[in-house]
Write a structure and sequence with these properties.
Elements (H helix, E strand, L loop, with lengths): L8 H10 L5 H10 L1 H8 L2 H34 L4 H17 L12 H11 L4 H30 L4 E3 L4 E3 L7 H13 L2 H21 L2 E3 H18 L15 H15 L1 H4 L9 E3 L4 E3 L6 E2 H4 L3 H11 L3 H15 L10 E2 L6 E2 L10 H14 L8 H18 E3 L6 E3 L13 E3 L5 H10 L4 H6 L5 H22 L9 E4 L22 E2 L12 H13 L3 H16 L26 H14 L11 E3 L5 E3 L4
Pathway: Protein modification; protein glycosylation
Cofactor: Ca(2+)
InterPro entries: 6hp_glycosidase-like_sf, Glyco_hydro_47, Glycosyl_Hydrolase_47, Seven-hairpin_glycosidases
Length: about 625
């Protein structure tokens, strides 16, 4: 028995005795024969009188009940009993029965030690077992990563991506072995030393030669996947006095040296441009750059380079990387916007936005993401005043709420639409899966990586912050329902929402039992799934910030669907052509971000929140964690 009990076992026995059944006779006799009662009654004439009166009253009541019962019984036997008489007897019987009814039984009161024993005996989960369940689920994600890596290693090592059905490798990102670099820090976080050794050894032996020999690459994709992956691996392997999650693989300086060599070549996209806006494509072998065939760059691409270039300057001591990257954001600050919202194209030749298409999906998404993340990265440094980034972010989020947010019918799912012909045109109820980055970004902007509980305790949140967090929660639900509404439990690449102005019948997700089957419309061309990470990214951030376990449960449902429908037995996971049919046809491609982002976010979602804390790290748009450096 624990010594810290707030009451004794005597109290427990007393409480239990209060609710033990006793007969009416036992109640009366125990009461009358109690020594205190007997002594007081014998010494008090009033007590004697009241006792006799009580006995007399009970005798009269019993005699009255007996007589009425007999008389009515006789009348019924003779056929002269009436309904009224029968009712009267029934009423008297009920009243009499109520008078002597038993007290209700209550469960016995258990001591704390007995509660633990009882809970174990009945098989109910104790609190520690809940975390054990999530550890087991986290191990399942780890096993999935190992399966994905094994397929890539067997059939596509050194290629950018795996075609798991064909068991072939393919170069679609410049031929720099993108899957190797993208997956490396995930393996470090998961503690998969063998994978870290294999990936690290390949990078040390082959990547620098690839960089020197390869031709054209996309500035944005190469920065977020390869440069970002190298920088994260540098920190997580102990560089910059960082974490040492990897026990095997090259020394941290190997990753840093390769990162600098790559970044020096990528800088040509900035220095070759006549404006602050970089060209979209770089030829690595001769460090030259040029614009895309249409002469334009994506707004999201030119504004999603700064986290990586800033961190490289910080650890290399060379400011040139950060200087070129931050010129872009400083220039974007000066351009006209619509309530903080910007078109999805920009010209590196004129430095001006091109067209009026406004959306938070492809070509627009990470512009808004990096406004708040770069501010978080730099706000505690002495490198300059970057509050303009936070101001731009806040203005943009107000614009999103005012111009893009709507609710579907009939079930009022909150979604973010598009303005394909600009702010004066119609709102399209189209929402890319890519937009599901937004809930996590909103939540991060509210608490700056702290939990909601701590932020509120420290009085850090404004009314607008709480409004933004509510929007983040609503959008996260919508993103999850884009999964649960389909037959496979996996989301399409694009969804449309039923509004008063738009509806198409016969284009639901296939799950007729979903409450939202009439809210979400999936066109035939949009039914593919690329193993994207945006929804599980937001689930991870929302769980870390709100500590609401439903986000973990939603993530588990999504993971189970990935396991059921995208896993290829020979190794790897495959994108799907149609999530509304079972079995879904496979697309035969495993994107690098499945290992670099999707499985990483799921692993962190199911794990301890102290691993890669959101107030100490900022994730680039490819889920590579970079430390937030303070002054």
């Amino acid at each position: 028995m624990s010594k810290s009990l707030p009451y004794s076992m005597k109290d427990v026995h007393y409480d239990n005795a209060k609710f033990r059944h006793r007969s009416l006779f036992k109640v009366i006799t125990q009461t009358l024969l109690t020594s205190n009662m007997r002594r007081e009654c014998l010494s008090c004439s009033t007590g004697k009188f009241l006792g006799l009166l009580m006995i007399f009253g009970l005798a009269c009541l019993m005699l009255t009940h007996t007589n009425k019962a007999h008389s009515v019984s006789d009348g019924l036997a003779k056929g002269i009993g009436t309904n009224e008489e029968h009712k009267e007897v029934t009423d008297v019987g009920i009243r009499f029965k109520k008078l002597f009814r038993r007290a209700p039984r209550l469960p016995p009161r258990l001591s704390p030690d007995e509660k633990i024993i009882h809970r174990n005996f009945t098989g109910k989960l104790k609190e520690p077992n809940v975390e054990e369940q999530w550890k087991a689920r986290q191990q399942n994600v780890k096993d999935a990563f190992t399966h994905a890596w094994s397929g890539y290693k067997k059939f596509a090592m050194g290629y950018d991506e795996l075609m798991p059905v064909s068991r072939l490798g393919v170069d679609g990102l410049g031929g720099l072995g993108a899957t190797v670099v993208d997956a490396l820090d995930t393996a470090m976080i998961m503690g998969l030393d063998e994978v870290v050794s294999e990936a690290g050894s390949w990078i040390e032996s082959h990547l620098l030669d690839r960089i020197r020999q390869k031709g054209q690459v996309n500035l944005f994709e190469t920065t977020i996947r390869v440069l970002g992956g190298l920088l994260s691996a540098y920190h997580l392997s102990g560089g910059d006095q960082g974490m040492t999650l990897a026990q095997k693989g090259p020394k941290p300086t190997i990753y840093l040296d390769i990162a600098k060599n790559l970044a020096d070549r990528l800088l040509s996209a900035f220095t070759s441009s006549p404006t602050a806006i970089p060209f979209s494509d770089v030829v690595l072998r001769d460090s030259s750059a040029h614009s895309a065939p249409d002469g334009l760059s994506s707004t999201s691409e030119v504004s999603t380079l700064q986290l990586e270039f800033n961190y490289l300057s910080a650890i290399s001591g060379d400011p040139k990387y950060s200087t070129e990257g931050m010129k872009v954001l400083a220039h974007l600050k000066t351009l006209p916007k619509t309530e903080g919202l910007v078109p999805i194209y920009i010209s590196p030749h004129s430095g001006e936005f091109s067209g009026e298409n406004i959306r938070l999906g492809s070509r627009g998404d990470s512009y808004y993401e990096y406004l708040i993340k770069v501010w978080l990265q730099l706000r505690d440094t002495q490198d300059g005043n970057f509050t303009y980034l936070h101001d731009m972010y806040e203005e943009a989020m107000r614009g999103v709420k005012h111009m893009l947010v709507q609710k579907s019918i009939p079930s009022e799912l909150v979604f973010v639409g598009e303005l394909p012909v600009g702010p004066k045109g119609y709102l399209s109820p189209k929402m890319d899966h890519l937009v599901c980055f937004l809930p996590g970004t909103l939540a991060l902007g509210v608490t700056k990586g702290l939990t909601k509980e701590k932020a509120m305790k420290d009085n850090l949140l404004t009314f607008e912050d709480l409004e933004n967090l509510k929007l983040a929660e609503d959008l996260t639900k919508t993103c999850f329902e884009m999964y649960s509404v389909t037959s496979t439990g996996l989301a399409p690449e694009i969804a449309y929402f039923h509004t008063k102005d738009y509806f198409e019948s016969g284009l639901d997700g296939g799950n007729k039992s979903s409450e939202y089957v009439n809210d979400i419309i999936i066109k035939h061309a949009d039914r593919h799934n690329l193993l994207r990470p945006e929804t599980v990214e937001s689930l991870f951030v929302l769980y870390r910030i709100t500590q609401d376990p439903k986000y973990r449960e939603w993530g588990w449902h999504i993971f189970e669907s990935f396991e059921k429908y995208t896993k290829v037995e020979s190794g790897g996971y495959s994108s799907l052509d149609d999530v509304t049919t079972v079995p879904p046809p496979k697309r035969d491609k495993m994107e690098t971000f499945f290992l670099g982002e999707t499985l990483k976010y799921l692993y962190l979602l199911f794990g301890d929140s102290s691993v890669i804390p959101l107030d100490k790290f900022v994730f680039n748009t490819e889920a590579h964690p970079l430390p937030i450096k303070s002054s």
